[in-house]
Amino acid sequence: MKSQLPKRVLLTFVGNRDPYPKEPKTKEYANEPGPILTLIKNRQFDHVYLVYTRTPQDKETEMEKRAKDIEKALKKVHSSLGFTCYPLVITDPLSHEQLLKGLRKLIEEVHKQFKNDEDFYISVSSGTPTMHACWFLLASSKEIQADILYVREKRFVSDKLPLVNEVRLNSPFFPEILPRTTTIEVPDVSESEIRKAIDVAEIIGDGKKLKSALEKAAIFGRTDSTVLITGESGSGKELFARFIHQISKRVSSQFLPVNCASIPEPLFESELFGYKKGGFTGAAEDKPGQFVLANGGTLFLDEIAEMPLLLQAKLLRVIETNEIFPLGARKSEKVDVRIITATNQILAQAVKEKRFRADLYYRLNVLFLEIPPLRERKTDIPKLALHFVSKFNKKYNRDKFLSKEAESKLINHPWPGNIRSLKNTIERAVVLSKGKTIEASDISLEDFKSLGGGYDIFPELSEGFSIYEYEKQLYRKAYEQARGNQSKAAKLLGVSTQAFSQYFKRNLNKD
After folding, report:
1. Is the pTM for the entire model greater than 0.70?
2. Residues 204-238: pLDDT tens digits?
3. Distance (Å, whole) CA 28 – CA 33
């Protein structure tokens, strides 16, 4: 538990009325401080970023002098307040594009300096309308999670109009601004191609781990090799497969996803390779398989570890020869398909347990991509939540938004079900919450300890601790959760059904 409150960080441009207006509008307010000093006087902050623009040729600008004057004025009364004077070096201060690029670099620096939980605030009382517009875009899209503050001139202050006004950007009155994924730079791939691929795949976030995975995926997209994608259930493996397809030369052809876990074993071969009329009893006409349907494009085989061993051998042959043999066919057929596979299991372990062919594993694992779990992408959670709230508001004709406490609750949850679980949680909250604001109490979260997750559920180590007994507890818990179905229990533990059955007979069946 934290012993102190989160730090409060203010970001603001320096304006013409800071630290004091040179030409006050009326004599009555001649000695009144400017917006920045007024805001800091009325709100408590731990650190302030004083932002100003200058060109590469400027040595010291008027705004830089004002920033230093503000710092001097505040140090007299707030000695413990931290300051950073931050220059945005741009050629055109009226360019939204240049300002946005500069502010994104600033946000990166802010997140490097403040690595723990902080409360960020942005003032739009100082600076130009162009600067204010950029702040609104960045805050609305959650590129920085911050509240917007505005200082009203004292002559306009009343009981109904407070001195410091807060703007709720997640209110339904504001338009939806989709979160932006950090731009990645990949050789031979244009920024517009990457942006389009991200939009089509609906990948949302700007965290370092997501950016690293996207860079790898974009490089893989420019090849035609097989790709193995791993990651926990619900982490977005299919989204990345779709992204790779969008970057590839096959983008104009079909992307065909197939879930291997959903195909009954007797139908696997005909589903993938198709069959010819009269090939077996009931085959009244030709049926093309998934390889034919995906010809020229990309075939995405999800949950590849669930493919039966016999079909694994046939898949290996297709990869090596680019030929398929439909059931009942007299000769093979050529296909041109790029194969991407995915699994939430450790395939190397499946190979050891003889559940997966080693030769196929090495053939699929030419290019390897691991998708980070949501609990390692905490900065992306608010952006994803904003996207899902907007999506379900449209679906159910609602106008709800998340409170700051609700967002905090979402950020601090470990999300064993990852993005899929977050999406379901938001949908449930949009449907069931009574008011327009979705409060923390409206966020119903699953007890991740009961789901068999491998983190934060281990007992405290102490003298007498028995790993054998703990292993038994895990197996017993999986068996109970699967309601006596050993195959499902084995999947929960990531072991083969045979291995689970043998352990059950040796250790649990006696209890």
Report:
1. no
2. 988 889 999 999 999 999 999 999 999 999 999 99
3. 12
